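Holo prediction. Input below; ligand is flavin-adenine dinucleotide.
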Amino acid sequence: MQSQKKYPQLFSFEFYPPKTEEGVKKLEIVHQQLAELNPDFFSVTFGAGGSTRDRTFDTVVKIQNKGISAAPHLSCVASTKENIRDILQAYKNNGISKIVALRGDLPSGMISAGEFRYANELVEFIREVTGDYFQIHVAGYPEVHPQAKNATEDLQNFKRKIDAGANAVITQYFYNVDAYFYFVDACERIGITVPIIPGIMPITNYSQLFRFSDMCGADIPRWMRKRLECFGDDRESIIAFGVDIISHLSQSLLDNGAPGLHFYTMNQSAPTLAIWNNLSLKK
Ligand code: FAD
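Structure of the complex:
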C-alpha cells in the first residue's frame, strides 16, 4: 500500500448520459449540486458498441464547458480503429484530456465485429494515435473480473493496460475493504504503482444492486444481504443503511491510504452528498 500514499487524493463523480429531456434537466441539477464539492472531474459512461456515442459526447462537452473537467468513458468492443480515432479527435478538439478506457460488454447474443478485443489494445491505440495527450484511466477489479480464468491471470491482464500507458485506475465497486488493499498490494508486488482509486457505489435500490452485483462480480457480504432483505420495500431505511455503511467503507479506505474516491452516482446527488458529508476530508 506504500506506493498509493504518495498520491494526492482525487475525487470524481460518474454519470450516465441521460436518454430523455427530463433526464437531461435532472442531470443538470445533480451536476450543479455535486460541482459545489469541487471534485477533480466528472466522468460519463459510454454504451458498449457505441450506443450512447453522441449522448456521451454531448454530456461530456456540456459538463466540461461549465468549468470542472469531464472524462468520457470509451469502450472499444465492437469498434473499429477509424471510429475510435474519430471520437478521440472530437474530444481533443473540445479540450477534453482525460479518458476512461474500457473494453465494455456487448449485450448477450451480439457478436463483435470490431478491431479490439481487450482494453489494453485500446490504451495502446490511444497512445499510438494521440501520444501523451490523454490522461488515461482504466478499470481494476479488486474482487477479480467475472470472466477471468483466475485471479493471477486477471492481474497479469490488468498489468497489460498499465504497461500500455494507463496513468490511473478506477476500481469496480466492492463492499469488502480488504479486497481493495489486497489488490493494491498484489499490484505493487508486480510493479504497478499508478494511483488505484476505489469505486464507490451508494446503495439505493436493493434488487437492482443484487442484479447488478451478480453481473459485474461484486460480492455483497452475507451480513449486508441479510440486513437489506429485512428492509423489504422500505426505501428510506435501505438508503439510511447504505449511507451508513458506505460512509464507513469510504472513510476506512481514505484513512488507510486510498488515493481518493470515485462515486458511481447513478445520476442521483442525495446518496453521494450524504456519504460525502459524513467523511472527514482533507480537501
Ligand atoms: P479488460 O481489461 O479488457 O478485461 C476484460 C477481461 O478480459 C478480464 O477478464 C481480463 O482478465 C481479460 N483480459 C484482458 N486483457 C486480456 C488479454 N490481453 N488477453 C487475454 N485476456 C485478457 N462498461 C461500459 O460498457 N461502458 C462504460 O462506460 C463502463 N464504465 C466502467 C467504469 C469502471 C470504473 C469500471 C470498473 C467498469 C466500467 N464498465 C463500463 C464495465 C466494463 O466495460 C466491464 O467490466 C468489462 O467486462 C471489462 O472491461 P475492461 O476494460 O476492464 O476489460
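The chain has a mean pLDDT of 95. That is the main takeaway for now.
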